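Recall that a protein's primary structure is simply its ordered list of amino acids. Everything else, from secondary elements to tertiary packing, is in principle encoded there. The following example makes that idea concrete.
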Amino acid sequence: MGPDMGTNEQVMAWFMDTYSVYHGYSVNEIVTGKPVSIGGTVGRRESTGRGVVYLIERAMNILKIDPEKCTAIVQGFGNVGSVAALSLAYKSGVKVIGISDAYEAVYNPDGIDVEAAEQHVLKKETCAHFTRPIMSIQRAAHFAVRLLAPCAVDRVINGENAGKLKCRILAEGANGPTTPEADLTLEKRWDEVFVIRTFCATPAA
């Protein structure tokens, strides 16, 4: 079992502990994403988000996009989205202007303080009340940004909104965020929207 939406290292540790109780000894291999102190892998939580950003940097290089002139919206601010947003903002130099979670989405055309947002989420467990909510989660597709990264739920890019995307790069950070209907539309828009497919693999620990 690997961590997904609504879980973290603590939850995975509980899974492992409960399973181990029934076997009478510690069964580390039953879950991934557990704390390093009980057999987890250093960097496991950050790996997917960092991998997405690595591919984004490659795409920007291919498309000759200056990262410092690039704006981004990251849908999802959990294990993948928060790491991706932090890496984009502080490693790549991209201006992150939108973030969201299951409860609220925040948009600031002047850029979001992603580190402050992360600290807020660590305390409150949600983006809600970090700053004024300006957009709904589903409206992210209508904003003109260079980069859109769906890093939460599946099927958010669908047949209805795929033709309305105004981004140059669509970087998949979630599992299956694009529907088959959206794929057909995006294939016709290949010269407008550069799609990064990311199939998330789970490390052994």
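The longest strand covers residues 95-100. Strands lie at 71-75, 95-100, 105-107, 133-135, 147-150, 169-171, 194-196.
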